[in-house]
Design a protein that fits this description.
Oligomer: single chain
Shape: elongated
Largest sheet: none
Structural class: mainly alpha
Distance between the termini: 64 Å
CATH topology of the domain at 54-164: Leucine-rich Repeat Variant
Radius of gyration: 23 Å
CATH superfamily of the domain at 54-164: Leucine-rich Repeat Variant
Helix content: 55-70%
Order of helices and strands: HHHHHHHHHHHHHHH
CATH class of the domain at 54-164: Mainly Alpha
Number of helices: 15
């Protein structure tokens, strides 16, 4: 093989990588990343005892050979607000059919029984992505710390891993956006800060999904407040610069006062400059 042929092979290889990167970005951007549903769980659960009432019949139907019947039974039990449904639905998370497991996770989230939180967390890692998405909705819907902490630290958090697959990243982004929809804001800022690292990923598809998620923060309950808080409160000027830049890119409608404050008084000259630039981008 002569030198020209070697250069040609290298060039073709580089071109293939470039084309794959472009395809990955296009694919990442094709389907919008959105937050997941958050349910209003039952205020309390009854404990029925009848052997032939609607709840008992639906519980029995969870063992049907017909997957559609199992799904319908899970949906019926999601509205029952009855403690008898919880354990059978937890068992259903081991069903062979993905759609059945999705229905079981949704039903558990709507019932809101705290005793089901830890068993769901324990089963989270072994599920298909469709089921994990349903479990994120359910865990975010449970009142209290444990379920929501799992959404942030066991789903959204990369924990140092090199995330490269679209489906994995989409789940993490959905978890981040869902955490930013909660009335309890204690998990929002940490979730958003995961995006800071994702935006620097070596994988083009991951960067594209992170950018899409940043822009989607505009449609969340807590996104604007938390980004302004990072810009105003972080001790790290790199994070303040990042927040000042993205507040403008996102176009938060209520951020002008915070940007003006940063543009005038921040201790970092680059934050001042970036906040000034962002003021030109956000609505009056």
């Amino acid at each position: 093989m002569n030198r020209f042929d070697r250069y040609k092979i290298i060039l073709i290889g580089c071109l293939s990588v470039w084309l794959w990167s472009g395809v990955a970005c296009a694919k990442a951007q094709s389907t919008p990343v959105k937050s997941l549903p958050i349910y209003e769980p039952c205020q309390s659960l009854a404990t029925g005892t009848a052997a032939d009432d609607a709840v008992a019949k639906a519980v029995a139907a969870l063992k049907s050979q017909d997957a559609k019947a199992r799904i319908q039974a899970a949906q019926q039990l999601s509205q029952a607000c009855d403690k008898r449904a919880v354990d059978p639905l937890l068992d259903l998370l081991g069903d062979k059919e993905t759609a059945v497991r999705v229905a079981a996770a949704e039903a558990l989230g709507k019932l809101g029984d705290q005793d089901s939180v830890q068993p769901m967390i324990d089963m989270l890692g072994d599920q298909a992505f469709e089921v994990k998405r349903a479990m994120v909705s359910a865990l975010a819907s449970f009142p209290g710390f444990k379920g929501r902490n799992a959404v942030v630290n066991q789903v959204a958090n990369p924990s140092g891993a090199d995330i490269s697959e679209d489906e994995d990243m989409r789940l993490r982004c959905a978890a981040i956006l869902t955490a930013c929809q909660l009335k309890d804001v204690s998990h929002s800022r940490k979730s958003i800060l995961f995006l800071f690292d994702f935006l620097s990923s070596k994988h083009a598809n991951i960067r594209a999904l992170a950018e899409q998620t940043m822009l989607e923060l505009k449609n969340t309950r807590n996104g604007q407040t938390e980004m302004m808080a990072i810009m105003k409160q972080s001790n790290n000027p790199v994070l303040r610069r990042w927040a000042a830049t993205w507040i403008g890119k996102i176009g938060f409608t209520g951020a002008r006062e915070a940007l003006q404050e940063a543009a005038t008084n921040d201790s970092d000259a680059e934050v001042k400059r970036l906040a000034t630039e962002s003021l030109k981008q956000v609505p009056q």
